[in-house]
Design a protein that fits this description.
Layout (H helix, E strand, L loop, with lengths): L1 H17 L1 H39 L3 E6 L8 H10 L13 H7 L5 E16 L2 E10 L11 E4 L4 H5 L4 E4 L1 H7 L9 E4 L2 E9 L6 H7 L7 E5 H8 L7 H11 L14 E6 L5 H15 L6 E4 L1 H44 L1 H9 L4 H38 L7 H27 L3 H6 L2
Parallel strand pairs: 3-8, 5-7
Antiparallel strand pairs: 1-9, 1-10, 2-3, 2-6, 2-9, 4-7, 5-8, 6-7
Amino acid sequence: MLSKFIYNFYIALDAIAHNRLRAFLTSLGIVFGVASVISMLAIGKGGEEQILEQMRILGANNLIIKPVLEQNEGDIDDEEEEGDSGKEEPKRFTPGLRLNDAESLSRLPHVVGISPEIEIETNAIRKGRKRTIKLVGIANEYFNDPGFNVATGKAFIKEHHENARPVCVIGNSIKNRFFPMENPIGKQIKCGQHWLTVIGILSPRNISRENRDKLGIRNYDMDIYVPIKTILLRYTNRSLVTSSMLERAAWNNNEAPESSFNYHQIDKVILRLDNNIYIQKIAEVANRMLARRHNQVIDFEIVIPETLLEQEKKTKDTFNYVLLAIACISLIVGGIGIMNIMLASVMERIKEIGIRLSLGATQQDIIFQFLGEAIAISITGGILGVITGYLISLTIQSLTGIETIVSFSAVAISFVVAISVGLLFGIYPAVKAARQDPVVSLRHE
């Protein structure tokens, strides 16, 4: 059986060789169909990898708590009644997001780590070099994140936090900018009004600008990290009563416009859970706990990165499915083109079919011959389609900046589908050719 198919396949190739242009034009439908499928799958794979990278950056098991400006409380009806009576309910006091909030949240079940952060913008100066940087106050838990490894030197120790030591761990880009030809460990860099001793260097994060902008995160490689107590004692502690806070209170009492004064002691809290299946429930409990601690004033927001990214992934998947469906239609159109040309070929070669049948060829031989032609056209179209699809994917990435990844599975699926289309749409013309009456075929002109 196999030898018979191979023999008839060679006859099919010989027939294609005598009609190369027609065979090439017939295969164009398969070429563009396969190219469309590969390019669409490449866009989908690129989007999936981008989502996974964002997951790795933000952490699939993380909850992020951020402070917001103080929110007004009460129902609309209550506000209307207060407006009619001329009485206004006094605003509730809220201490803002504080370090002791983070300590309380650390006692929640399934929380395996908690990392409070304080960010201030200041200037870094060393040997005539100056640059605006983010000075980030952190706890040691920060370095337990797989993306924040201390490559050289050491992380903070308990004594650094308790005594607010002027020490720092610098990002990789800070090292390259301020210490280009020397080892920074043990050397000093001035941040704001204080000199800090470098005790460690972080591994480079290499996060793309697109992901930084999309996720709203900093360039971690350009940050300088200090113990959180160092920030609070040596730089700023927004929870302390200051003249700015008193001024804000006076403005509020005089019904002046709200000030943008930031009264939150810390700028972010990241909760790391042992399993993301509990993430929604822990978020609800954390929300109730913080609302109670803040006197029912919702001046914070809880972000679940996994939920946001999953929603984005579903949206992209839906879009990719639509594009893939359109690409599959192109393959079907290509298959119809093969059937059309093969039917025309059968009508043109009736006498040839009659001669083969009269010389002893069986109906199976004729079927194998015409199926071989359809499959050969599909294979050629599939190979050209893979090459075209790869080039289209590269063009899309270079022109639009959309990441595309051509995977082996996408190539294999497209190639198998192309051959299947040729086989499916080549069966009917092959059977029709095999059923020709040899006597009638020989008389055909």
